[in-house]
Design a protein that fits this description.
Number of domains: 2
Strand order of the largest sheet: 7-6-8-5-9-11
Strand content: 5-15%
Number of strands: 11
Helix content: 40-55%
Structural class: alpha/beta
Number of helices: 13
Largest sheet: 6 strands, mixed
Shape: globular
CATH class of the largest domain: Alpha Beta
Radius of gyration: 24 Å
Length: 361
């Protein structure tokens, strides 16, 4: 065959192939229905989830037709897990400690009182066996999860009265989920679980006396400074609150290896991005709360923290006793806290203390 004729035939074949392939590619679009535990456009939490949903569609070049539903738009915030486990939706974005009533092993994958900071839980998930344990737990419920965000060390919360001793916590109605809520129950408070969108109205009405939410940035936009006078620190309940994207296991299993890599990469990207964004904005909005809105900061004293520590020890032991899998998760978590925490005690914490003391500018 002459070279010119060959090129013409070959080019024509390529065009024909491309023309035939186009409808096939269009048919390969995959629906990805995501439900969330966060309200639409909530700074940090809601906007992070929305950004992740958009990023998945972008990275798959539109092959994934992503439909994102904020809390209450398809199901309630706390119904997200069942919506995904049942297959009615393909994935949720939220905080896994909301599911501790199903199994206490879910709690460490968000936060444990006196537990891991952001850098420590990140180390656990990536190098300390945390991801494998999350998958092992999720397999019992038809969920394949992975980290997709972190809000760092949280504030102790907003209170309508000063907390000067452990006695002041007794009878207090406080919005606080997860194992942190169990700690508050042991010190005599009454923990309440509420989605973020219902906190302000309950605090204003007096239905609750106190609440934790996240930190200065998120708390500012909920206007919690209008509803409570005292802002306490540091929070013992969530020292590095990890957020997760949980996929329906059957849906996840049907995806190609490359699509799984894309989804994993998108979640890892957002995990780092949200942590940095929250850390930056917490500093900005803490200054605003103090200087523009007159918020009164209060530090929990040693008496209160000792009561928290005693209660947290009991709560963690009780969670561990639930089942062999719960024990495996918590033992792994504690091993990382001891090992990585030993390094933290010689690195970040003392360095920041020395910096604050000796730097003159």
């Amino acid at each position: 065959m002459e070279r010119r004729k060959f090129l013409k035939v070959a080019t024509g074949g390529a065009v024909a192939s491309a023309t035939l392939a186009a409808p096939a590619i269009a048919q390969e679009r995959t629906d990805l229905v995501i439900v969330s535990t966060w309200g639409r456009d909530f700074p940090g939490l809601g906007t992070s989830a929305q950004r992740l949903a958009a990023r998945i569609e972008e990275l798959t070049e539109g092959r994934f037709a992503v439909q994102y539903f904020a809390a209450g738009e398809r199901v309630g915030a706390f119904d997200s897990f069942d919506e995904v486990a049942s297959g009615n939706a393909n994935a949720y974005i939220g905080a896994d400690y909301y599911w501790k009533g199903k199994h206490p092993g879910w709690a460490p994958f968000t936060a444990v009182p006196f537990g891991l900071t952001y850098t420590e839980i990140d180390a656990w998930m990536k190098f300390g066996g945390g991801q494998a344990l999350l998958e092992k737990l999720g397999a019992e419920f038809g969920i394949r999860g992975m980290p997709c965000g972190n809000t760092g060390v949280q504030m102790g919360g907003w209170f309508n009265k000063e907390i000067n001793s452990a006695e002041d916590l007794k009878g207090l109605k406080m919005r606080i989920p997860g194992l942190g809520g169990d700690v508050m129950a042991k010190v005599g408070a009454s923990p309440v679980s509420l989605p973020g969108g219902q906190i302000y109205e309950n605090l204003v009405s007096g239905a609750i006396d106190a609440t934790e939410w996240v930190g200065p940035w998120n708390d500012f936009f909920l206007k919690l400074y209008e509803a409570a006078k005292y802002y306490y620190w540091p929070g013992m309940h969530e020292p590095g609150s990890q957020l997760s994207m949980g996929f329906n296991a059957e849906w996840w299993g049907a995806r190609s290896d490359n699509d799984k890599r894309i989804l994993t990469a998108a979640c890892a990207e957002e995990n780092a991005l949200q942590a940095a964004e929250t850390n930056y904005n917490n500093g900005v909005y803490l200054n605003r709360l103090i200087n523009e809105y007159g918020v009164e900061l209060r530090e929990f004293n040693d008496d209160v923290y000792e009561a928290f520590g005693d209660a947290a020890t009991e709560v963690i032991e009780e969670a561990r006793d639930h089942s062999p899998l719960a024990a495996e998760i918590i033992d792994s978590f504690l091993e990382v806290r001891n090992n990585v925490g030993a390094w933290s005690n010689l690195s970040d914490a003392p360095y920041v203390a020395k910096r604050n003391r000796y730097l003159k500018i």
